Amino acid sequence: MFALAARNALAGPSRLPLPLRLPLPAPLAHLAPTSVSLSIPSRTFSASAPAADKLKSHSGTKKRFFRTASGLFKRAQAGKRHLNTLFSASRINRLGKTRYASPTQAKMLQKLLPYA
Known about the structure:
By secondary structure, the protein is an alpha+beta fold. The protein has a domain at 74-116. Helix content is 27%, strand content 8%. The chain has four helices and three strands, in the order ααββαβα. It has a three-stranded antiparallel sheet with strand order 1-2-3. A hairpin with a 5-residue loop joins strand 1 (66-67) and strand 2. The longest helix is centred in the last third of the chain and has 10 residues, at 103-112. The radius of gyration is 31 Å and the shape is flat.
């Protein structure tokens, strides 16, 4: 029981005791961290109106979906990259055709691609 308590008091995987924090000697006391208040100067811009925040587009979505002129999101059909040697030719041709996102997916895509 005592050995277990002593082992838990030690730190780290090597079970070495924690190092002690000693006070700095007098000549080095000025190097100790102190609380400093920093003042950041205000910057003025010449723009007449404040700039609105920009929304970021999702990088992965940009590479996979494209918005058409009618507002639909175009995408590629999954499952044609590899492991398809056993597929019939008609299935491989069908997988090569373009697909469009469902209305539920389109709602999410509008948030991920705000400027598409």
